[in-house]
Amino acid sequence: MKAFVEIRGVSKGFASAAGRMNVLEDVNLEVAEGEFVAIVGYSGSGKTTLMSLLAGLLQPDSGSVSVAGKPVLGPGPDRGVVFQNYSLLPWLTVFENIHLAVDQVFAHEPDAARRARTDRYVQLVNLTHAKDRKPGQLSGGMRQRVSVARALAMDPKVLLLDEPLGALDALTRGTLQTEIERIWQADRKTVVMITNDVDEAILLADRIIPLSAGPRATLGPAVSVDIERPRDRKALNHHPEFKHVRSRVIEYLLASSAKRRAARGGQVQPSPVLSAALSRVESGT
Amino acid sequence: MLKIASGRLYKGLLLPLLGIFFVVGLWALTSSTWAPALPSPSRTWEVSRPYILAPFEKRGELDQGILRFTWYSLIRVAKGYSLAILIGTPLGLLLGVSKWFTSSFDPIIQILRPVSPLAWLPLGLVIFQKPEPAGIFTIAMCSMWPTVLNTALGVRSIPQDYLNVARVLQLSRRKTLFRVLLPAALPYMFTGFRLSLGIAWLVIVAAEMLTGAPGVGGFLWQEYNSLIYEHIILCIITIGVVGFALDRVMGLIERRFKTG
User: Fold this and answer.
1) Which residues on B lie below 8 Å from A91 (Cβ)?
2) Contacts of B121 (CB under 8 A, 6+ apart)
């Protein structure tokens, strides 16, 4: 496997009252071109820090991050980020939010071509009817679609999804998962998605990599998801591979959290979505 | 429907009128009992009538209709206020953006901020040697601070997410300023602009009193010296009403820029 996105021996810490604390320690990751990788972990285990390192918004204390063979030294439009809370500019319309990115990345194209490009991405996420609305007039799901369209419109080499659906209700989440899969199928971009929802990861990803409980979180062994696409959410639940993948990911997470708890003598709170999954696994369903 | 309309009429018109009647009554009572030098409401109306009924008439340099005086004052305030905004906004932006700049200049701003217009005016006269620029200087010096502080606050409270977007897109400094920083800080800035205008209008009386320039404040001071106390009250009411109107207009503009 030739690595397109590569993280090598990365550690990142932040100063706290108790001194410097490593959030991530010795993280290694290799993602092939066109691969969809999901990183699953507890809330507060450093998932967003990992994403910021990939985006170049943060620099590692040690180790290196590279994309397409070039080291990541700062943020740039070759890595499209879909932020956890959408990060749309509220004074711009749907069209303008996406166009801001298009204008920046395709500055060499004539004006008409840029507008057509923006329109195409508005269309891609089915928001043509709402293109002149401001984010404040949109539902959470629609905002997230704008955010996805903006990231895709930069035509990035890698798409970074930071808990893209975390703030949405279960129904909207399901719809958008389907939509993300559709868009990815059409485009086959390299995607790194961070999530706390194991089922979502299984539905979308080629490989799932668990992130151990923090602090000093690190990536565990990857689990391949060998389920044919397109994947059907309902059929998925009964797929033998689904149960196998799920229990491997969750067992790793549970073991890492137990180890952490033993080391600290304290409690690590799993996220609501994750704990629901955990209880289902523990009760053997 | 009718009930709602009458309720609004009651709250929006009748109750405020009641409040005004109460205060005017108190004023009448005061002037007829323990403060006989204070002109009564009816006497104030009689003496002020020519100034109100011919509001734009010019009979002499310091004998003009009340709205004409108000106009002079508004022009003066507009000049001082524009200067305050022109200096205050970039100053606020710098304070908001740069920690270095904040550490250097925040203390001196906090010291200059509470200084009264009555203290700035003589200094203005010393610097400019003429009353008119001294007045404008005073208005600017006093009204600048809410704009400075609110602009700085607005820039500081921009969510990191918006700045991250600018960084990921690699927006130029110019584009970051005009597409991200300014729009995000605009609601705060307008709050500053509104407060600044209130202060600018507040200062006008002091500025005109001491310079003797024609305007509401100058008129007020002159009529005090000429013992025509009715006109003092006329000026106070005029200043109050104009100030209220200015605040309302700015409030409307401010609301337009409050983007969710």
Assistant:
1) 183-184, 186, 259
2) B134, B135, B138, B206, B207, B210, B211
Mutate to test the interface with B, among A67, A89, A148, A160 (most CBs of B within 10 A): A89
Per-residue pLDDT in tens (0 to 9) along chain A, 285 residues: 568 899 998 999 888 777 788 888 888 999 999 899 999 988 777 888 899 999 999 999 999 999 988 899 989 888 989 988 888 999 999 999 999 999 999 999 999 999 999 999 998 888 899 989 999 899 888 998 899 899 988 889 899 998 888 777 878 888 888 888 888 888 888 999 999 888 889 888 999 999 887 778 888 888 888 888 778 878 888 888 888 888 888 888 888 888 877 776 655 555 555 666 656 555 544
Residue holding tokens 């009353």?
B131
Go through A124-157 and write b for each residue having 16 or more CB atoms within 10 A of its CB, e for each that does not. Answer: bbebeebbeebbeebebbbbbbbbbbbbbbbbbb
Contacts of A76 (CB under 8 A, 6+ apart): A56, B168, B170
| 3-class DSSP state of B172 | coil
Query: Which ranges in chain B belong to alpha helices (H)?
Result: 2-9, 15-32, 41-53, 66-97, 99-112, 117-128, 131-156, 160-168, 173-175, 182-211, 216-225, 229-257
Nearest to A101 among B164, B169, B259 (CB): B169
Question: Which pLDDT does position A285 carry in this prediction?
Answer: 46
Buried b (16+ CB within 10 A) or exposed e, B195-219: bbbbbbbbbbbbbbbbbebbbbbbb
B169 with A89: Cβ contact below 8 A = no
Q: Which two tokens stand for residue B254?
A: 């401010």
Whether A58 contacts chain B with CB within 8 A: no
What is the distance in angstroms between the Cα of A136 and the nearest Cα belonging to chain B?
6
Alpha-carbon gap: A131 to the closest alpha carbon of chain B (Å)? 17
Query: Chain A partners of B180 at a C-beta cutoff of 8 Å?
Result: 89
Residue B56 in contact with residue B65, Cβ under 8 Å?
Answer: yes
pTM for this structure?
0.77
CA distance linking residue B240 with residue B233, whole number of Å: 11
Q: Tell me whether residues A57 and B168 touch, CB distance under 8 A.
A: yes
